[in-house]
Amino acid sequence: MNRTFRLVSATALAVALGAGVTATAVAAPTAAPAAPSAASSSVAAKPALTAKADVASVDAWQNFHVTGKATGIAAGTKVTLQQKQGAKWVSLPATVSVDKNSAYSMRVKLGIKGKNFLRIAGGGAVSPVFTVTVH
């Protein structure tokens, strides 16, 4: 409908300008804005991820779990643990799929001692950063 309105308006304006009439004298047809349809109002949620570790600190190479929820991401989508190394985010070999309940859980081992900045990425979303300290 908007495309038709623009086409009619542009045509009327071109004809009026070609005939020497000023643009302000042209009365373009007006149409009431269409009410949003049910299909256009059900916009998919913006992809988002949450993430948290089940511990605040661990010994080097000790197992811990990272869990979270996915919003606006399809079941079966792969999510990957990322670690900040210097100024770059590096994907670690810890990847799982989002389940049918929009949740995920992964077992992780870290070897870099100190405070590790971590996040989960996948499905066009990145979780907030969380930390785990390795002793």
What is the CATH-assigned architecture of the largest domain? Sandwich
Number of helices: 2
Largest sheet geometry: 6 strands, mixed
User: What pattern of helices and strands is seen along the backbone?
Assistant: HHEEEEEEEEEE
Spatial separation of the terminal alpha carbons: 64 Å
CATH topology term of the largest domain? Immunoglobulin-like
CATH class of the largest domain: Mainly Beta
- The named CATH superfamily of the largest domain: Immunoglobulins
Keywords: Signal
In short:
Keywords: Signal. Residues 1-27 form the signal peptide. The protein is of the alpha+beta class and 135 residues long.
How would you characterize the overall build of this protein?
The protein is of the alpha+beta class. The protein folds into two domains: 2-35; 48-134, Sandwich (Immunoglobulin-like). The chain is 16% helix and 40% strand. It contains two helices and ten strands. The protein has helices spanning 2-18, 38-41; strands at residues 48-49, 52-53, 57-58, 64-71, 78-85, 88-97, 103-108, 114-122, 125-126, 130-134. A hairpin with a 2-residue loop joins β8 (114-122) and β9. The longest helix has 17 residues, at 2-18. It starts with a helix and ends with a strand.
